[in-house]
Structure formats: C-alpha cells, structure tokens
Amino acid sequence: MIFVDGKPFNIESSSSNKGADVLNALMECPFLVSATNSFKGISEMRFTVSAESGVERSTMSKWVYVFQKEYATVNPAIVDFVGTDEATTCVGIAIRNRKNGMISVAHMDFPDIIMKALSQMLSLVVDPASNAELDVHLVGGFEDVVLKENNHITGSGSRKKMEGYSFPLCYKIIKSLWTRPENFHLQTLCILQHNTRRDSEGNAYPIFNGLAVKTSDGSVFPASFDSTSRCPDEVVRRIRLSSSYEDPNSMGRLLEAYETQTDQFKIEPFRWSQWKQHMALSLQHLSDSEILQTCSTSPYAEGPDFVENERRQWAYIVEHPDWRETFPKKKPRIFTRAADGRWERCFN
C-alpha cells in the first residue's frame, strides 16, 4: 500500500491497467512534485577517497556502496551513508523503517526482479511482529522512450507504442509497492519526466544518476561516487553482475554482498565461462562509440567513465581466464572495515 503525505493513495480508474494510472497520478501529485523539486535543489553529495583530499582517515564517514542489481541493508548504528549511482535507465530505491532506522538500498535494473527484490530488501528492515511505517525514495530512470507506430491499425488510426527501459521498470516498482501489504510512505519520486533534462537538440538525459541516504536521520541526497569510493572489490563485483545473467541461481533476484550484522562484504565465488572470455577478447577491440552502442541501454546518457569501466572488466577476465585464480580454494572474498573506514581484504 502506498501512502502520500500520511494518507493512503488511491485513484478512481476503470482502466484495465490501473497500475499505470497510479504511476501517472503519482507523477502529478502536488505533494510529490513539491518533494521532488526540493530534492532537485539539494547539492549533489560526491563520495571519494582521495589521497589529496586532506581528510583524516580516522574521521572519514563510513558508507556502503551498491552496484547495479545489488542491494544492501545497513544498521544506522554502524554505517553513516548508503548509496548507489551509475543509474541511467535503472532506478535507485531506498526503504527506511521509521521505527528502527534500518535502511535498505537497491539498484534495480529489470522489471522481472522487482517482486523478489522488494522481499529481499524488506527481510532485515521489517520486523514481522510489528506494523512498520516505511519511507521510500526513488531516483533514476528518465524519458528514454521512443514513439513507434504499432503494426495493427485501430479504428482511430495508427496506435502509437511507447518503447524504452525506464518506464516499464518504474511502472513495475510502483505497481509492486501499491499491491504489497506493507505501508510505504512515498517521499521522493525523482523518476521519468521528473528526472529528465534535454540538450539543445532535444536529446534526453537523466538529471541524477544516484542517491545516498544519511542513516542518522534518513535524509536523502543526490549522490555520485568515483572509482575510489565504489568499493570494495569494484572490478570483481562488476564482473559478477554480468556473469549473473548466465547463472540460474541469480535469476529473478538481487545480488548480495554486504553483511548487515558484521559490517563486512562477502563476495561468494562465481565463475565466468569460456564464452565470456571470448567476448572479453572481442570487445576489447571495439571503439569507445561501439562499446557504448553495444553495452549500454542508454549510450548517449552514460557517465564519462562508462567505457573505461567496461574495458577494466574485460582486461581482468583476459588476465585471469580461470575464475579460480580470483577465488582460491573456491572461498569467498571477504572485506572488513579498518579503523580509518577503508575496506581491507581478509585472507584465510
């Protein structure tokens, strides 16, 4: 059930697709429009771990970073911030329990995982013994749709079909929140047209690609992370994402890496196939523009480091063709937080 401004949200609709009507009504809701405009007025929080920053390591904030198709649930007594970025047609979602302060953040990338993904996120956020009031923030997705003529003709002429990645994903998220029994208080809806800017030629781009939650009070900010702060084990976790689409055990669910109670990352062993090695060798020879067209759902809207990130994954796979080099004795890669807030790998 979705609440807006403290009240259950519902609309009168005779449409066979009431979920889409709910999404459209929410996008026009004055309370959410005002909240989204306020969100847009917040300065973007930039996360980095730079040797030139001059920040004392012992005073650095502790954060947890979530990659595409990952989620993490954090305890505010342990972690200061949790967030994600690099979302173009993807959506970052944050859910916070008002009572206990537990927060789960996910980077949703495909409609078919939403129902299972929400259950995963809520597993440590909601106490089954109590009725939780949950604040929800959605940031990401933009107007990437293209209007195309449908093949069949109706009595009123050509029927136009909306095609794109962002709308089906946002629709499925809203529909799932609306039909689930929990009380979801929608606070931020910076998606689709509310998260779209256009250049002088009319090309669409997302305004924001990420969000971060301050765990002490649940406040949400636009956020970006650089390669030093998307940690730990950045390249291996990126490869895990692409490899997960070949793994039946990863289908229809979010990937886990962060362990809430111990405040550590545990990347379980996974393998990459000979086909993936062959693809890595082939893709290395593509030009930057060819990589964008081949590997992105929104080639004109990606960040400046997208191509570099793709190339680093392929270079790693070529250098380590046997996945067992990365996971000796088939053991997980475990990272614990050092006193200065950085992640350190544990070898056992």
From TrEMBL:
Gene Ontology biological-process annotations: ubiquitin-dependent protein catabolic process
A single GO cellular-component term on record: nucleus
Domain of life: Eukaryota
An annotated Gene Ontology molecular function: protein-N-terminal asparagine amidohydrolase activity
Pfam families: N_Asn_amidohyd
Protein name: Protein N-terminal asparagine amidohydrolase isoform X1
Organism: Momordica charantia
Gene encoding the protein: LOC111020342
